[in-house]
UniProtKB/TrEMBL annotation:
GO cellular component assignments: plasma membrane
Phylogenetic classification of the source organism: Bacteria, Bacillati, Bacillota, Bacilli, Bacillales
Organism: Lysinibacillus antri
Transmembrane segments: 6-21, 33-54, 69-88, 100-121, 127-149, 161-181, 187-204
Protein name in UniProt: Protease PrsW
GO biological process: proteolysis
Cellular compartment(s): Cell membrane
């Protein structure tokens, strides 16, 4: 059991540590990040319940609608809601890169609990592929989401609402593409590899841009 739990939790911690350590300009309070991670973990259970009810009630005659479209939308919306309601106006969300950390934190909280439940059901044999795909993809969706939250809060160009919309729309579209690829049985592996490379490239580019915004933000603070 210890080995299984370690295998389930380790990918999320490793990915979060990676994005946390990339922030060399400032240190975000660990307590707030931990709280965000916990909230991300807690939303797993209402999400699972809603999806179970929809499935049992036969709310969608087309499996694609329920398993891909609705699942992608619900997961990204709940993660977005946690950041918007609990973090976006928080005093400790005080620089553009913080969005990256909070987005990754809430997403990895959700992904970690989901991963634990999955490995408990299907065994440790799936741990490696789970780390490569579901856990890392959730982290990267969260990075993109957090990037646009940071833009919304700190970009001084009257586009707060536009960036807020992008903070949920773009992760949803990426998640939708990811889930859609997994429905192509037989050759999904051929499609998922380039998509994951693109997802990593996109997320790392957002991280780089967030660093640039952070440097500019600190410069403006220093000279104002």
């Amino acid at each position: 059991m210890f080995l299984l739990l370690s295998a389930a939790i380790a990918p999320g911690l490793a990915l979060f540590s990676y994005f946390y350590l990339r922030n060399q300009m400032a240190t975000e309070p660990r307590k707030t990040l931990l709280q965000t991670f916990i909230f991300g973990a807690l939303i797993t259970f209402p999400l699972m319940f809603i999806q179970y009810v929809l499935r049992e009630e036969g709310a969608f005659s087309n499996p694609y609608l329920g398993d891909v479209l609705v699942a992608s939308g619900l997961e990204e919306f709940f993660k977005w809601l946690v950041i918007f309601l609990l973090i976006f106006r928080h005093v400790e969300f005080d620089d553009p890169y913080d969005g990256i950390l909070y987005g990754a934190s809430v997403s990895l909280g959700f992904a970690t609990v989901e991963n634990v439940l999955y490995l408990l059901s299907f065994g440790i044999d799936t741990a490696f592929i789970r780390a490569l795909l579901p856990v890392s993809s959730h982290a990267l969706f969260g990075v993109v989401m957090g990037y646009y939250f940071g833009k919304s809060k700190f970009q001084k160009n009257d586009k707060e609402i536009e960036y807020l919309l992008l903070s949920i729309l773009i992760p949803f579209v990426l998640h939708l593409i990811y889930n859609s690829i997994l429905t192509f049985k037989g050759y999904w592996v051929i499609l998922i590899a380039p998509f994951m490379l693109y997802l990593w490239w996109t997320a790392l580019r957002k991280v780089k841009l967030a660093h640039q915004h952070l440097v500019q933000h600190l410069y403006e603070q220093k000279h104002n």
